[in-house]
């Protein structure tokens, strides 16, 4: 079984390294740079395969060293000191080879092309009234601080604030390196347990907020025909119906074939609101298309992490206990304040590791 698994990895390695060599030739062709999008895609693929190619080369070196050391042991002719040295070297080389094979198995996990994309996040208050809107604002600040820590850029796209300082809904984009790969598992219901500031008896309330994380679609990903859009303009309004401005700058775009509706009103410029609404619309249409594809894929991610459905409770934030629990991976951390200040890395890495381990288990012979 072990030899069969090793042979499978070697075959996959050979294919990956052949592709790496093809990319080396392709990106050296000056004609490629006329197509910037294609150039970027090939450069990213080349960068992802570089450690695989390096690992394959080291594996070949190890196999040669193992062969030579085994031959040295066979030719020791009663020289026990030489034989002992050869046996120690064989053991070291075998351990290094085993560790390298394990590392290469991880590197060879198929990459989701969406992981390299930027993300559009949508946070909406659920059950809990004002308390839910306040927690929606807490989550927005948490993701803002996490983005700052990673050197990402956050841009507000749309928001619907409340008089108490919360959000009924807030939509924003995050751009940077592998944003979607780090945030994709934040989709779902986030539950908060705490004593609201308006609660005089000290009773703990439970509220909920839904989060959706969408890979941001480029124009080449989703074609939107102008004739498929119905665009309405109206005056923006703030919390409680308060007027924001006196011009028809708010924009509502309806994608007629699917019925998807996007509204943006944060900017004073109708043109800017329209551009932002189109970005959100494109991301939602890409998500809808990907959901159809996802339904046909292997279920290991769903079993380990969940579907990412917005109706699925994924995490609880318990303020009295200073506790955050992610229910999908049974992870509990007693540092709620730090997490709300953007210290999400442990949670993110645990979720990513769970998906990786599930894949490796499913591939085991």
How is this structure best summarized?
The protein is α+β, with helices and mostly antiparallel strands.
How does this structure look, described?
This protein is of the alpha+beta class and 365 residues long. The chain is 48% helix and 20% strand. It has nine helices and eleven strands. The protein has helices at residues 2-27, 36-74, 80-107, 130-150, 179-183, 270-294, 300-305, 336-340, 345-363, and strands at 119-125, 153-161, 167-175, 188-194, 205-215, 229-234, 250-255, 260-264, 313-318, 323-326, 331-333. It has an eight-stranded mixed β-sheet, sandwiched between helices. A three-stranded antiparallel β-sheet has the order 6-7-8, with helices on one face. A hairpin with a 4-residue loop joins strand 7 (250-255) and strand 8. The model is unreliable at 297-301 (pLDDT under 50).
Low-pLDDT residue spans: 297-301
Question: Strand sequence of the main sheet, in spatial order?
Answer: 2-3-1-5-4-9-10-11
- How many strands in all? 11
The share of residues in helices is 40-55%
Question: Could you give a short account of the major beta sheet?
Answer: 8 strands, mixed
Distance between the termini: 6 Å
């Amino acid at each position: 079984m072990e030899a069969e698994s090793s042979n499978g990895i070697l075959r996959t390695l050979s294919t990956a390294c052949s592709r790496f060599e093809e990319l080396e030739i392709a990106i050296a062709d000056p004609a490629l740079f006329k197509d910037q999008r294609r150039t970027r895609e090939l450069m990213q693929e080349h960068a992802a395969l570089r450690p695989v190619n390096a690992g394959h080369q080291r594996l070949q070196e190890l196999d040669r060293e193992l062969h030579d050391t085994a031959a040295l042991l066979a030719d020791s002719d009663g020289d026990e000191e030489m034989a002992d040295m050869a046996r120690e070297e064989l053991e070291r080389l075998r351990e290094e080879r085993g560790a390298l094979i394990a590392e290469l198995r991880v590197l060879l996990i198929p990459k989701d092309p969406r992981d390299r994309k930027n993300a559009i996040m949508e946070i909406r208050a659920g059950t809990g009234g004002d308390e839910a809107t306040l927690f929606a604002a807490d989550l927005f600040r948490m993701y803002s601080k996490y983005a700052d820590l990673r050197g990402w850029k956050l841009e507000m796209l749309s928001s619907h604030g409340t008089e108490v300082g919360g959000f009924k809904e807030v939509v924003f984009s995050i751009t940077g390196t592998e944003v979607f790969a780090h945030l994709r598992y934040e989709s779902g219901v986030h539950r908060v347990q705490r004593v609201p500031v308006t609660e005089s008896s000290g009773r703990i309330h439970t509220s909920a907020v839904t989060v959706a994380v969408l890979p941001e679609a480029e124009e080449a990903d989703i074609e939107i025909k102008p004739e498929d859009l119905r665009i309405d303009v109206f005056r923006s309004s703030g919390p409680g119906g308060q007027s924001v401005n006196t011009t028809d700058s708010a924009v509502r775009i309806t994608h007629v074939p699917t019925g998807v509706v996007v509204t943006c009103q944060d900017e004073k410029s109708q043109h800017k609101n329209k551009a932002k609404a189109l970005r959100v619309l494109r991301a939602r249409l890409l998500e809808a298309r990907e959901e159809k594809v996802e339904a046909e894929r292997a279920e290991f991610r769903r079993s380990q992490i969940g579907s990412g459905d917005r109706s699925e409770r994924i995490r609880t934030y318990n303020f009295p206990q200073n506790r955050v629990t992610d229910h999908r991976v049974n992870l509990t951390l007693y540092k709620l304040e730090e997490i709300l200040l953007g210290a999400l890395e442990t949670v993110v890495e645990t979720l990513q590791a769970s998906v990786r381990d599930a894949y490796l288990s499913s591939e085991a012979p």
